[in-house]
Structure formats: structure tokens, C-alpha cells
Amino acid sequence: MNLISVKNVSKIFDDRPGERLVALENINLEIKQGEIFVLLGPSGSGKSTLLRIMSGLEKDFKGSITYGPDVSAKDFGFVFQQFALMPWLTVEENINLGLVSRAISNLEKKTRVERELKRLNLTKFRNTYPKELSGGMRQRLGIARALAIDPKVIFMDEPFSELDSFTAEELRKELLDIWQEQKATIIQVTHIVAEALELGDRIAVLTPRPGKIEKIVENWLSRPRKLRSEHFFKLEDELYKLIKP
Ligand SMILES: Nc1ncnc2c1ncn2[C@@H]1O[C@H](COP(=O)(O)OP(=O)(O)O)[C@@H](O)[C@H]1O
Ligand SMILES: [Mg+2]
Q1: Ligand 1 close to Cβ of residue 46 (< 6 A)
Q2: Residue ranges making up the domain that contains 106
């Protein structure tokens, strides 16, 4: 059973007078339970738009999105490039934010906040405000907040792009550890080929505008990935050839 089916999805932006921008054209995808699915393409290829459509944030489009019987919007967690944290709330309060309106007991909310503080190594910073944190710590918080709701699907839009490459690498490893214990499905947008290969089970390469699927590449590298292996470079080459700037 597929978790999310994308059928014949197209998106035209025509809200500005005299402008008609075809962002996505006839996208077809099936997301499988438990996989890491990566949308890879150059800037402007419609990755963020497609992620927004798949997650239900954007409702104005042609075609259809259908969810499997066990998922709905309340099972979706989000991690964004710009962190999207509330500056006036502490680390702990930011993690709690997504739980506020949930039908779970206060004790359960507290337990989940503690669980995520611990899992993302944020316990010492629980009373700290986002502006006092480094970029890497802010994104840890972004991930902690997404995980607190026990998401079945985590949508991530370039979550590591604002970080230096060492911090990004460390966080990717942690994300993979979490994914292995959580068994959530991850749908991630990136423009970085090596990141797509490190994370993705399958990688959809998008063309420049209008965004279409050039190819869906199966990543046959075993986990944990050997990042500088011959096979890694071979697949990296294959992906670069598919991406048209
Ligand atoms: N709200 C909007 N109004 C008009 N054009 C938009 C809007 N959002 C995105 N676009 C355009 O749609 C195209 C795809 O954007 P986006 O999905 O952000 O691409 P990506 O994430 O791959 O960089 C771009 O040309 C962008 O300028
Ligand atoms: Mg984008």
C-alpha cells in the first residue's frame, strides 16, 4: 500500500497580473511506507512547491494527492530550511508547541518533550531562546519539534542547506539514526547531490522549470553509506548527468 500517491499534478502560478508561471507539469509519484524519498533538482525546479502540495500545505493545483488509509495531515511533521522557530519561546516551549492542540494528556506531552530534548541533545538548552543557539542547534530544535508529534511522515525542505558542511554531515547522521529507530517515512527536498545519495532510498530528479520528473533513481548503496566509495561516486556521476541546470 502506498502512503502517498501523486497523480498528474501540475501547478501554475498566475496570481500576478500578466504572469503565468508553470512550476510543475504532470508529476506522478508513489511514496512507500518507511522510505526516504528525495526530491532533487536545481533551484526553481518546483521542489518546494511539490513538497507543499504533497503535504497539503498548498491546496491550489491540478491533479490529485491521495493518502493511504492510515495517514492524515495530523501525522505530518515539518522541518524547514529557515527553522521556523518561535523566537519568544524557549527550546522546551518550542518543542511543546506542536503538542498544544493535540488530544493527549499533559503528562504525555511532558514525556514527549523530555524524550525529544534527550534524543536531540538539547536538555542543557531547555530554557534557552532560539537566538542564543548556533544554526546546528536551531535545526536540532526544528527536528525535535517535528518528532514530538510522533509523525508518520516527515517533510523536510532543505533542512541542512543553511548549515556549515560539518554540522550538516553530523545532523544527517543523527537523522538517519533516528529514522532507523522511528520507522517514519521521510520526504526530503535538496539541491545537493551527495546529500540525496546519503539519505535517499529513491531520488526523483526534477527538470528546470517547468518541473517534471526526469527520472526516479533507486539508490542501491547499502547503509550505512560509504560516502567516498567507488559506487558512491558512480551514482553521483549518474545523478549529475540527469540534472539539467
Ligand atoms: N507564490 C508564488 N508565486 C509565484 N511564483 C512562485 C511562487 N512560489 C514559487 N514560485 C515560482 O515557482 C517556481 C518553483 O519554485 P519552488 O517550488 O520554490 O522551486 P525550488 O524549491 O525547486 O527552488 C519558481 O520559478 C518560483 O519562482
Ligand atoms: Mg525550494
Answers
A1: yes
A2: 86-151
